[in-house]
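Supplementary notes for students who missed Thursday's class. We covered one full example, reproduced here. Read the sequence, then the structure, then the short commentary at the end.
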Amino acid sequence: MLGLTLAVVLGFWLGNQFFSYQQKAILTLENTVQNLQLENNELSKNLNILRVELDVAALSQQKTFAEIKQSIDREKALQKDIAFYQQVMAPELTQQGFIIDAFNVEKTLSDRVYRFEIVMMQREKIKNTLKGNLDITLVGSESGQSKQYSLKSLLVNPELALAFGFKYFQVLDGQIQLPEQFQPERILVQSEIFQFNRKKGELHSSFDWTLSNSSE
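Structure (token representation):
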């Protein structure tokens, strides 16, 4: 009888211990599930934020591409306008393909002395010798007033001839010294073009005063 009582008591105690263990295990699992749900919610939130940022980046990229395309289209339209007006102003020169490709200016070590370089060329396949003289004017301001100077009058070497004669291309360079207080802004180039001693037309070009390798 005593042994049966002890067995019942022992069985009851073991049952309580197992039940308590199960309760603790269930509580641990519930906490784990809750933590996983919180972590999942945080990950979902971050994922949504990343998706929004990705969508914004894609829209920004599309906008950038659209702006680049618009800039390219504007440049093409401007080039067509320039070509049209060149044909109106001097169609014979357009046919001959004579252009001033560049007017470069750079500062020297001497005070207010600048080196200039004019690049002229023909772009047509059939080229005949073109000749002429360049009339170059610097436009700017001096002491708060508008002022112009002939580049010829500013030459360091006054004997330099601003003339050209070429079939393919020619580079004309020299040095000028600017007057005190004069701030150049634009460069105007005019020329009468001759071929076989006959006048073919006139050229009018304008360039901004921009230094190639330094700043004033």
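Commentary. The first strand starts at residue 98 and ends at 107. Residues 75 and 81 are 10 Å apart (CA to CA). If anything here is unclear, bring it to office hours.
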